[in-house]
Amino acid sequence: MSSTTPTTIPPLLSGGVMLTYRCTNECKHCLYRCSPRQDKHFLSESMIDAALSALASEPSLHGIHLAGGEATLHWKGLLHAIRSARRLGIVVDYLETNASWCNDDRSTRESFLRLREAGLDGVLISASLFHNEFIPLAKTKRAVRAARDVFGPRGVVVWTPEVLDRMERELDENRVHSLDESTRILRIDSARAELWRFHGYLTPNGRAVEQLTEGLIRRPAESYRNEPCRRTLEDTTHFHIDPFGNLFTGQCPGISVANIGNLHPTIDADRFPVYCQLAEGGPVWLWRGLAPDFDPDPRGYVGKCHLCLDIRKHLRRTGRYEELRPDEYYRD
Ligand code: SF4
Ligand code: SF4
Hints:
The structure is a single chain. With 332 residues, the chain is α/β, with parallel strands linked by helices. Helix content is 36%, strand content 10%. It is built from 13 helices and eight strands. Helix 3 (105-118) links the parallel strand 3 and strand 4 (123-126). Helix 1 runs parallel beside helix 2 (75-87) and helix 10 crosses helix 11. One iron/sulfur cluster is lined by residues 205, 229, 232-233, 250, 252, 255, 278, 282-283, 304-305, 308. One iron/sulfur cluster binds at residues 205, 229, 232-233, 250, 252, 255, 278, 282-283, 304-305, 308.
């Protein structure tokens, strides 16, 4: 049973504003399940202003990053977001990009210059075997070179440099590689979970638990009992606001009790039963409390978030739980 003591979302510290769920890629590790199949829905300029105004009122906010999907699919909105943040005094730590648009040196440099002129101080460029299924390394390297030129070395983060270094040494930079091919060339044994060790930041949630569970140890659903999630759900050090204004805390996309209209609502079990069950007792409480008819996967789960996602998909089909949103996240 959930606690009857109402709570709320603590002050926001640092996080991302997602301009869209749409992406050029459909990376197998994507926590937010972005893809080219998602609608062309972008956070509108008025919503960007509303989201940033709400964030500007947060007393403990250190900074934000701009992300997608792939935020550069909507340059106008992206430039607006950078200018709007600057006007409101919000620090934009970086723009996250997958470099899909970096087709030649000149246009890449010019685009980074436009971003800098709008007020951006830095970028994060993604480099992984998952991205390399869609983006040849030459584009990633071009993005890094041009960004260092425009923002200076301290204004560029490669995520991650170790992976980029290994790919540079062993992969053909002029073409993409399927994951099967790149892991074979790099002698990464997915069956021994080496793919997860190679990309040490992976989160067992979102698309990763749908497509990358090979080699991971699975445990029965019941074994995740007594693993409450309050700490994670109240963690605001890496929150996200999605293109519909929904707030996600922790590493918990698809669960939203707050939005840019009210980032700190009163949270009680009547209004937000899913959140409260998870906060109090974790996914097994959610299962026992709200989804007794849920039939867990007999193969087990690689982590509690894997189980949680499976139960939430089941609950979402009932249409009863408004806090399980948006559609984009739960769509297959
Ligand atoms: S991980 Fe990034 S590049 Fe890959 S699908 Fe997700 S948003 Fe797109
Ligand atoms: S089990 Fe669910 S609520 Fe708990 S941390 Fe994982 S995704 Fe978040």
